[in-house]
Design a protein that fits this description.
Layout: H1 4-24, H2 37-45, H3 56-64, H4 68-73, H5 75-87, H6 95-110, H7 113-127, H8 141-157, E1 171-175, E2 178-184, E3 190-191, E4 194-201, E5 221-229, H9 232-237, E6 245-253, H10 257-260, E7 265-274, E8 280-283, E9 286-289, H11 294-304, H12 310-316, E10 327-330, E11 339-344, H13 355-361, H14 365-368, E12 371-377, H15 384-402, E13 414-419, H16 421-427, H17 436-441, H18 453-463, E14 471-477, H19 490-499, H20 507-514, H21 532-535, H22 541-548, E15 556-562, H23 579-582, E16 589-593, H24 603-615
Helix pairs in contact: 3-6, 5-6, 6-7, 6-8, 7-8, 13-24, 15-16
């Protein structure tokens, strides 16, 4: 080894040790590697609301203000520094969405509501700048982030003590640098003669069971508001469904937000907008859409309501002690000029089965501006002549109650939509039966039956039917006009006849009618009157007679028929009703949907109902 070798080795060792020191004095290496585009998209578009982490734009602002490490160590001090820069005019508008997101994140981590409200103030200042300054560019992703932050921030900042609802009231609330004074007019809680209560934030609701979740992005906290009658008299006569919910939007307006940031006292005005009232508000001279989620409000209503319990219980009736009478209910209060669309469910079903159709149709402004939705619930195991009489009485009573002077044009153009057995009830609103139904059931004139006058009058109302003058349009969906083949087997009809109970109000009349068994065309056994299943047997006199009675020519009728599989339509069925039974002549249109019996929630059926409704009264 040469004398210089050890020396050279020491120099190399020193050089190796010095490399990290030299590298540390320079900028870190920069490069780019290929990753999943989804990863890049999340990096560029994610924010504290969607991923739980700060957005890229906010992290940029923290870095450029030299506050990245300080926010990690002392977030409140970092937020105070950023606000002081705003007050001193040392920063531009880019800081507002960043400080809004940072305030929201700190509220989430600390549980301090004052920072939710601070986030709302900062977000509003970005969205609606003072003094005629230009609003954010519509394509700026921070605009939607700021709107969403504002919407959630006022929901959480103005939440009830238990956090389950949003409080709609005036009051003073803490801000990190002072207080927020909120004004609210209590009259805004009165709507359509009713009181709005229990404001549930729908952003916290997961929707199950509905295929479409309708959201109208905008500004404000989307809510599901309860409805309460303002008097006992209204509670008795109201058509509003129990536990009904109205989509509504809460908006906290903070005029001159940037200017107010220099003050300890910030003033805002809280307002409330039910969905049917308006879709937009004017802020800073421009129309701004309101955030609304009608689907979530509808799902919350159905979640709370006992309506699902009426499925099979409503078929078997008092044997399960349902204890509820048939009901005609509306989704929302009647508005003058709106045309009711009455939905009538089928056998062993409930009004809730129309949820998908109502969800989609009432969210269409072209529909909601002209129509409103009612639903009829009934014990579907009872004789169809009885259930249809209850439907006709309910519709007549509703029209008289809502419009005693007969001036409302909407109530004179009612649309009735019936699925399955509900279609037979629907037909009974638009036919003149004369004595045909009665003659098909009895061999003696009605006056010769041994009946009390009360029972005789009830029989006349049920079997001698006149068209309802205010029903102008009907839609039949999978209706067994000539009966259902599933109702035919003797085992099924005998079993149902034994189980389905007679309504309490008809026990006396049922006994009187059964005492005239010798005058009945089809004798009944076991002391029971015919059930709906009896009525829908293809050989039953009722359905055979009703099938040949024409619909009032002044009424427009349409058919939607389901057929399973891809075989010939004419010989097909939906699993319950054959095409040849659902098909009738004289309708304005017939749509065949390749699906099973419960087709009312399918998009093809919903779009057909939409098309029919949009034709309007002029087409009739």
């Amino acid at each position: 080894m040469s004398p210089g070798a050890p020396r050279m080795g020491r120099l190399l060792a020193l050089l190796v040790l010095a490399i990290p020191l030299v590298a540390g004095a320079c900028a870190p290496p920069v490069g780019a590697v290929r990753v999943s585009p989804r990863s890049v998209q999340r990096e560029l578009t994610g924010n504290v609301l969607s991923t739980g982490e700060l957005s890229r734009s906010t992290r940029n602002v923290l870095f450029l203000h030299g506050l990245s490490e300080r926010f990690e160590d002392d977030p409140e001090a970092a937020l105070d520094t950023m606000r002081s820069h705003i007050v001193a005019g040392l920063t531009g508008s880019n800081v507002f969405p960043a400080i809004a997101e940072l305030s929201f994140l700190h509220a989430e981590q600390s549980g301090k509501r004052s920072y939710y409200l601070a986030a709302a103030v900062y977000a509003w200042a970005f969205l609606f700048p003072d003094g005629g300054a230009s609003p954010p560019d519509p394509l700026d992703p921070r605009l939607r982030m700021a709107a969403d932050l504002y919407n959630r921030a006022i929901t959480l900042g103005l939440a009830s003590p238990d956090g389950t609802t949003m409080e709609m009231s005036a009051g003073t609330h803490e801000l990190p640098w002072g207080r927020l004074e909120v004004a609210f007019d209590q009259e805004r809680l009165r709507w359509a003669g009713r009181q709005l209560i229990d404001f549930v934030p729908v952003a916290e609701l997961r929707v199950d069971g509905l295929q479409a979740r309708i959201r109208r992005p905008g500004i404000g906290a989307a809510l599901a508001a309860g409805i309460a009658p303002v008097s006992e008299e209204q509670a008795v006569h109201d058509l509003i469904a129990p536990r009904a919910k109205v989509p509504a939007t809460a908006l906290l307006q903070i005029d001159g937000a940037r200017e107010q940031l220099v003050r300890e006292r910030v003033q805002g005005t809280l307002d409330l907008y039910p969905e049917s009232e308006t879709l937009t508000v004017v802020i800073a001279g421009r129309a701004v859409p309101l955030e609304q989620e009608p689907t979530a409000a509808l799902a919350w209503e159905l979640q709370e309501a006992p309506i699902w319990e009426r499925e099979l219980k409503g078929f078997f009736g008092d044997v399960f002690q349902v204890g509820s009478t048939p009901q005609l209910v509306s989704v929302a209060p009647h508005r003058y000029g709106r045309i009711p669309v009455v939905l009538v469910h089928g056998t062993a079903s409930s009004a809730a089965r129309w949820a998908e159709m109502v969800n989609v149709l009432q969210s269409d402004p072209a529909i909601s501006e002209r129509y409103e939705f009612w639903a009829f619930s009934y014990d579907s195991g009872k004789a169809i002549v009885y259930s249809s009489m209850i439907l006709r009485d309910a519709l007549t009573d509703a029209v008289h109650r809502l419009d005693p002077e007969g001036k409302d044009p909407g109530l004179k153009q009612m649309v009735v939509v019936g699925h399955s057995q509900g279609g037979l009830l629907t037909k009974m609103t638009v036919v003149d039966t004369g004595s045909r139904l009665y003659d098909g059931a009895f061999t003696k004139p009605i006056d010769q039956l041994q009946l009390s006058e009360e029972t005789r009058g009830l029989l006349r109302r049920a079997m001698f039917v006149q068209p309802l003058p205010f029903v102008r349009q009907v839609i039949f969906i999978c209706t067994p006009h000539r009966g259902s083949y599933l109702a035919g087997p003797a085992f099924v009809t005998n079993l149902v006849r034994r189980i389905v109970s007679t309504p309490a109000r008809l026990v006396k009349s049922a006994g009187e009618l059964l005492a005239n068994r010798d005058a009945m065309v089809v004798a009944t056994g076991g002391g029971h009157l015919p059930t709906a299943v009896d009525n829908m047997s293809p050989r039953n006199p009722f359905v055979r007679t009703l099938s040949v009675i024409p619909i009032d020519p002044a009424v427009s009728a349409y058919s939607i028929i389901a057929v399973k599989g891809d075989g010939p339509i004419e010989t097909g069925d939906d699993g319950v009703v054959k095409y040849e039974s659902a098909h009738i002549d004289g309708v304005k249109s017939e749509l065949v949907v390749r699906w099973e019996h419960s087709v009312q929630g399918r998009p093809e059926a919903i779009e057909e109902v939409r098309r029919i409704l949009l034709l309007g009264p002029a087409s009739r």
